[in-house]
Amino acid sequence: REFGASTALGVMFAMIISMTFLPAVLSFLKVKKVKVNQRGIEDNWVTKFMDKLGGFVLKREKLILAFGAVVILASLVAIPKLHREVDYTSYFEKDSEIRQSEELLEQKMGGAIPIQLFVKGDMKNPFVLKEMIRFEKYLESLPNINDPQSIADLICEMNWVVNGHRTIPETKEGVANLWFFIEGNEVLDQLIHNEATEGLIQAKMGSVNTKKAIAAVDAVEDYLRHHLKTNLVEVRISQANGQLAERLQRERVAGIVSKIKWDIRKRGVNEQIPDADLGKVITAALLAGQKRFDEADIKVVEQKIADYFFSGKADLQIESEKVVAGVINEIGKRLQNSRLNEEAIIAILKRNLPQEAYVEDPEVLEYVAESISAIISEEVRWARVNQLVENLKPLLPRNLRNDKTFLEDLRDDVWEINEDWIAVESSQYPSLFSTKNNPGKAVTKLAVWQTGIPLIYKELDRKIMRSQSVGLAIAVFLVFVLLTIRLKSLVGGIISVVPTILAILANFLLMAILKIPLDELTILIGNIAMGVGIDYAIHFITRFKVEFAKSNNELEALDRTLETTGKAIMINAVTVMMGFLVLVIGDLVPMKWFGYLLAITMVTSAWGAVTILPALILITRAKCIGNFSTFAAAVVGGTDTVIDRAKARVKKTQK
Hints:
Structural class: alpha+beta
Number of domains: 5
């Protein structure tokens, strides 16, 4: 708006100065004597060139218009291929420090452009946190989005420290236990707000290219609109009926498959793995239940129980290695054939521990049995997950089958097979709200909004494109209406704007050929060309009408118009072109392109005014210009005859 207003004011002030101050100054200057031709026009090489140009236009008007038509058709084909993007690093030369620093950040640090997503929901609810983790995995799978983090990541990291896997606990109690360790940490102020009912997902954009940023924004928006669960209902699968349980298991499998494929895509692997194949293996693991312990699993359990007794954290302190070894050996033997509940563990403890160790506090055996049972249960889950990972490996891309970090992510992805609770979208499960046998809980709300620089890029691009496109269309229409009124002819209005439109299309054609992006600067060229080019057309038509009314001779009118106004148009175009070419010596690359394109547009606008416009006048013989009846009658004898007769009349008049 400011650019348009300031430009309009500048044009108005230039008009006032040209009509007042400039004539006053010229009145004090002496008029230099110049060599003139027979018609009283300054005789120089420019005048001679314009004379030849007039003859060419009069003889080849159809060829000129055919060339214009080719340009229009080529432009219509090329314009859809214009790429609307801006890479802000390309604004600087390759050896500039700013560009090199930004490229280093993109290559080594994941980028410098922040992405923020505002999350509203209960940040201590495990299923809200699970949705956030799921969303972050999707973000990482997108090109140019790196390092997402949120409060959910802190919970996962803490769970890894405590339990060995980066996952969100299944229950609120589990989340609360981990939350205790991060309570009071300064980083929480950056990730959550308002008593943990609002949160932030942060990530980095790996490029300052607006096309890539807009693609990322669109991909995120698509996920939020179609895949994010916003009304969560917590359901316990073991308490659901048969059909509902099967449906819930299928949803769980689909969720795990999605996470696996996102982790694969995150590593730049585009190999397609059928969802059905992954789903079959995961479903089989779910149906198989607990994995039977093998010798390696038992050794892991025995080592963890030994670490428990000798770590100082055990509820019952036993210094005798022999006693501990007896407990471990008996537990190991029992695990080869069956599972152990807490009662069986208590019995083993009583058989192996001296009575004086627990006689004063018999309940301590229950605490110890509970801890050992938890160790065994955890190892059962790990064994199940590890077995599933082994079964999935043949389906994975070869370069990822032994990738340590990927396999860790894969174990975290499939950990859900050990969980009984699942959160589903309430709108897809209306049966969960029935009054009888309702296994669901209350609805938990979740909402996510995009914020940050990439979203600003998209909105800026949309508004600039829309405003400039609409502005250019309105400018063309208003100019057409005003010229139609001025010339009192619809045809006159059309032929007046055609050369300028052709110059604008030629500019876009050149941009498509040279692969120059359509950005905040280059999109302004069309409006500038409209403002400048239409001046040339108005000057030419006005002068041609005057000269044609004087002589009623199309060649003489064309010659005199080109020798006077046409020469002024070309000089003006060259002068303005040189002014815009000053931009090419700047440091910003887009400003250089802007200068080149504007310079070329000035030339094409002027050339269209002195070739396309007179050709259109001669072809259409528009009545708003003058009476072409004599010219039309002479056309029968050929264009050369017209020129010869016109020249003869000119010579006769001069004598």
